[in-house]
Amino acid sequence: MENIEGKITAISHILYINPKSLFFEVSLDNQRWNILVTDRSHLISWRDNLLIRQWVKIDELKRVTIYGNTKSKPLSVLETTKNSKLTKIEKASVNSLSSNLMNYEGVVTDDTFGSSGFYQLDNSLTICLTYMKLVTSIPIINKGDTIVVHDVHRIRVKDNFLILICGRGNLVNRTAHKENEALFPKSAKEDNRNFLQHLALENNYSIGVLFSLYELCKTTCDKLMGILPPENVTRKLASVNEKGVLAAVVDHISSMVHIEPKLRSLSREFLAHGDGCAPCNKETCWTIDLWPLDPHQIETRCNLCDLWVSNVNVEAENEKTPTLPFYWKHDVALIDSRSDRISLLMGVLSFLNGRWELRDRTASVECVAVERDCQQFRDRCVFTSKFAVHRECFTVGDSTHARIYVSIDEFHAASLPLAKADVDIDEISSVNGVRFLALSKSIPQMVYSSDTAIRHVFGYLVVASLHCQSQLVEASPPSKRPRKNQHSDLMSETDSEGPANCILLVSHDHPTLSYAALVEGRVYEIRLAKRKLLSKPIFLAALKEVPQYALKNHVYAVPDFVAIYPVAYHLPKTESYMRRDVLRAEECLSLDEIGQTVSLRGRIVDRMHVEPRFASERTGQTYTTHRGTWLGIPGNKKLILKIGDDRESSFGSKIDVYFNLREGQVYPLGLFSGTEVELTWLCLRKTQKTGRLYCTSTLLTSIRLLKIGRNFGPTKPRIELMKEACIGRRYFSQLASIRPKEVFSCLVTVRYIHKISINCVCSGCGNAITRGTCTYVGCHWNQPSCKVDLKACLFLFVRYWGECIPSCIHFLTVCY
How far apart are CA 306 and CA 784, in angstroms? Predict the structure, then answer.
């Protein structure tokens, strides 16, 4: 047994290990002893005497050895026994041993993120208790409390000073709280649910990573204030089936940049603190860059970082006068997260005023993505680490109109839907209710009518199939219809109960059925008598472009005060009117009947703008702004999309689609080269002189984005990059830099082939083969599995910058 006396220079909190233990250090002159207390009676009786700088005398101590993992060295400490006694003694104070730790006293001025273990002291310093809060008896502190910390680290991370308490540190709350009177203060329930607490406890990441997540948490809570509760951001689980926002972000980042968890021992941090502690490493492996949602700030940031890549198409009106500015210019800034910097775009995805947007508390930005993903994550907090910023500039005269929006490749959900989800109605509807099957919906637009009661409505048109109750319960057997006209069945009518198919005009501000909530192929119910709904048809002059003229007389407006609910009924897939033929460009060009409506799917190869041809198309206002949304396109222009089949190249069948946005349709975003789209309710037409087939949009046309293109910018920089990388592939435009008699390979586009010579060589003797036989008389190679090599010699005459370059020979070898 040993007896010691000296001054207490360090005290730990009670560590929640097995058994629960407390360490303190006693120093005298140049000697130092580490004491381990595990007896609960000693922890209670010695509690008031264990104070920093207190002189004590301890009797009946035994020396024990603490073992850790196989890589750590064993440590020797003095452990108390049942007969151990602690006595206070009075001695003059002496200077403490030198240490790289510090002591600090301050007032807690902010405890907003106290559940994460971060507090603000004196409005200047940040103290981190995250690593200690759930595993030690550290006292509970609140805003306004005066605390004193001993033996803590002062670390500078990202130009911010913070105080970190490790296993050797000690915190004393001088403000009395009832919760701190017990030996083991009870932590708040919110602390046990906090994500950063569990992350620090399970992985022991460095303070640099933890501080980055703390700053991300602060920024996210500020951006989503009033939209999401702060606990939905900070908690590990916001609900039973929902992770917190911060937990979802960290899971996504961990899949991109993996960080190995660090081993940590609280007892060794106290006993062998000179070896360092795992959390004190301030190296930040995750540099998280959260982008703003203000379009002006996004554009400014792309300008400062020089991220724009121009994707300019030479317009028809500028071919003769290239000095004029382009009417339409498309600039793209690709934002891809790297291992050293992770860019995030976070907000609530919602559909407002005919457009998808990401919004937070202060700003919102328009966005485009695959239609399926937008519907899936509607009204949810989402984030993405792979996106692109787009800037479309329209130059009309001396003025320039610009649109800033982002395209998102993939969404990651960070919360459940904020709004109440659509609930199917199982109850029997009223006798006078009208049920309809939504066949398709148009682009949101300003619909103009000649009716005096309805002059103009900002909404959308729904092509609906009306059915009574009995028809919904017992679905009729499928009926075959010709492929040549996919909408021919919409013209059928019933004399007794009104039209079988019609067009419904629904306001965009309808309280019970929004544009994004309407799903094609689903049955809905209008809580209005069928007689009242069909009593007042409205006339839309723009429907004259639709070949189904019978629908023109059956357009009905749904009042805003009438509720529309989805019905818990889905038609079988065998129903004929559920089928919609979506054609490719090659199939569309093979149709014979002109004037029919078609649906087209393909990849945008090119985009152009032309002047309207007819005088009727030049009249009227072609561009307005409604609630911040563009209706139409600046300037009196027509938008032309060249749709092709091939996804990887510009070869293959192509067809032009003309969009006349003069009727007040919402300007669609994301229509640039490389994007795969699906276009419905197009009218197939044919030119009189050349017989070329093309398509035009109608009032019922809808655009669905299937895949967002990402190949932007000119090809020349990529060629130069290949040349510098010594890949060995060059273009004829680089022949000036080639030395004479230098062997090289290149890519060419052949316009005229002057001569092709193909020789067939016998694989048995190597001589030429003519008419299936070897020209060598002595060759008897007659095996059925013989191998024939074809060698082709291609002669090319290339004209470069007005000079004829000598013939270039390229040898081809084909084996079969």
Answer: 64
